[in-house]
Amino acid sequence: MNQGTAKTDIYVDRQDRLFFSQQLSLLDERYGVEVHAYAQMGNHYHALVRSREGELSRAMQFLDGTYAREFNDRHGRVGALFRGRFRSSLVEDERYRAWLGPYIHLNPVAAGFVDGPADWAWSSYRAYVGLQRPPAWLHTGVLLVGDRQDYAAMTEGFVDRSLVGLAREPVEVSGLACATPGQVGRVLTLDEFERELATVFELPAAAVRSEARGGNGPIRTAALALASGRTGLT
Fold it and tell me: What is the pTM of this model?
């Protein structure tokens, strides 16, 4: 699940981020929505949640609404903060779900905020790897199937693979080789690019291709983020 707006940052200072975390902590008690992983970004946030009672929409209305009101009051702002309804996708495949934790926790790295996921204070990663005590409202049991060192090694390993590392190389899209100024590296064909994504997700290339081109989940999000970073295209 992700939510945000392309128009403005939704976090200005530390107090904003602390207040958002406080509101996030209330979702389970009030609406039966478990928070399994999250990352606060600049103009959006990502979260992996599970709704036990079918109250996801109400929970998100509460989270976004209370946060937007507090944000506007603190910063003398009026009008909507978030653009449109939050985007969500159902996760049923266990391999897919296991990858979502690292994907969410690596978003600050992919965005260039920090060099490693442990350097970003505004996600659940540090709680997952034992650098801070997990809050009572954070459900780590589903994603943390091994020990904390295993999870850290798996997540850090993605930094050196396509998810983050290859975002600095150009890619050929629809036969047109493009690159942002200053980029260097081998130009990949679209098929090669999809195979790289398949390696990251540990899924067949055909499945990744289907999700990346027509889906609305993390595979498509990752594909768009990588393609944009490697081509300079919107």
Answer: 0.69
How many of the other CB atoms lie within 10 Å of CB of 48? 22
Q: For each of the chain's 234 residues, which pLDDT tens digit applies?
A: 555 554 578 999 999 999 999 999 999 999 999 999 999 999 889 899 999 988 999 999 999 999 999 999 999 998 888 876 666 666 665 666 667 788 889 888 888 899 889 999 999 999 999 999 999 999 998 888 677 888 888 787 666 544 444 333 333 333 333 333 333 344 556 677 677 677 766 677 777 777 766 655 666 656 665 554 444 444
CA distance 229 to 81: 26
**Do residues 110 and 227 touch, judged by C-beta distance below 8 A?**
no
d(CA 220, CA 224): 6
What is the token pair recorded at 8? 């403005």
Cβ 161 vs Cβ 99: under 8 Å: no
Q: DSSP string covering 64-77, please?
A: HHHHHHHHHHHHT-
CA dist., res. 59 & res. 42, Å (int): 21
Angle at 78 between CA 55 and CA 58, to 5 degrees: 5
> What is the DSSP secondary structure assignment for residue 163, as one 8-state letter?
T
Please give the structure tokens belonging to residue 187. Answer: 């130009």
Q: Give the C-alpha separation, 142 to 66, whole Å.
A: 28
28: tokens are: 């389970």
